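Lab notebook, entry 354. We have the chain sequence and a SMILES string for magnesium ion, and the next step in the workflow is to get a structural model of the bound complex before anyone spends time on docking refinements. Request logged below.

Task: model protein plus magnesium ion, output structure tokens.
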Amino acid sequence: MSHETETPSTLLKLDDYRVGFRTERGLAKAVDGVSYELNSGKTLAIVGESGSGKTVLNRGIMGLLGSNINESGSVKFQGEELVNTNRQKFWGKKMAMIFQDPMTSLNPVMKVGKQVSEPLRLHQGMSRKEARHRTVELFTLVGIPEPSQRFDEYPHQLSGGMRQRVMISIALAIEPDLLIADEPTTSLDVTVQKYILDLLVEVQKESNMAMTIITHDLGVARGRADEILVMYGGRVMEHAPAETLFNEMAHPYTSALLSSIPKLDDPKHTRLTPIEGFPPDIVDGPDGCKFAARCQYAQENCLSELPDTTVKGDHSYACFYPIGTDEGAKAFASNAERGHTAAGLKIRAKEEVI
Ligand SMILES: Nc1ncnc2c1ncn2[C@@H]1O[C@H](COP(=O)(O)OP(=O)(O)OP(=O)(O)O)[C@@H](O)[C@H]1O
Ligand SMILES: [Mg+2]
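Result returned:
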């Protein structure tokens, strides 16, 4: 979504942001033209299947992808252009990231307590003693048992779940302006997940921090996020306030994603409908809509033309035949009639599944 003028609370603004990896086969376009804005104090959830580009997008924003990439478009953070610059000066107090795999992000040769207390001393001017005290407090808060003893241990001495809690303590300690949490709770059990997300939201309220939560779980996205951005093949398929996305879902990919995810109130053993087929090749991808090959609504033009983004207030989507429109209904009906889509995908149901 793009607005002409930047409001003072716009913290992050992406415009046609692209990241490609140079590979032997050619450029792997992991992020392929992403635009959105995030305001201070808001939570954005980014959802999408595995490989849709969620992690690369956010590591790219942070400047954590190394040098073997092609980066283009614009990423403005607090008004400053980040693309093709070194973002190191922003790490810590300005932006921080909780990683999918906490082992790769904690320093293996530094005691975990020090990894939390150092930023406290550095950014909040605490004494060594105060920082240690606060760290033990934070460890207690995130549910690390025997926190004073843990302080002096190394990452390899901790379980995956405990390491992730250490990462979360670091984020809670520094209260950055932007916190990016990549699947922050996958190695934690469900009650702990809920508790940790509540904690993050609490910190956010106090500090006006903006948060991006990357998740597979649309339920988490709906419960915690102000806005949801749906990614596929490195592109934004749909972006809307959380409730709008659920109530006025426009993109067939969003709908397919929703039906492929278990819901809390589903009876046990409910059969989910996995999205048939595979994500697109990102080196030599399709010309048209990236989802066309797997989409029940696909028509000829979806295979050859990339749909523009339709913007309706704070709801935007990139689709020629959106759900809930006459064009969408006609496209689905004609595919159902002939039994397959323009891409040859068989249609089993005679009625739209939304
Ligand atoms: N270093 C790399 N070189 C080449 N391709 C890469 C590299 N890192 C990631 N990719 C590719 O970029 C695409 C996006 O990957 P990414 O890790 O962002 O997906 P994701 O949405 O975070 O998936 P998941 O939900 O599994 O974490 C994938 O096709 C992946 O294979
Ligand atoms: Mg990822």
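Notes for the group: The first strand starts at residue 10 and ends at 23. Worth checking against the assay data. Residues 95-175 form one domain.
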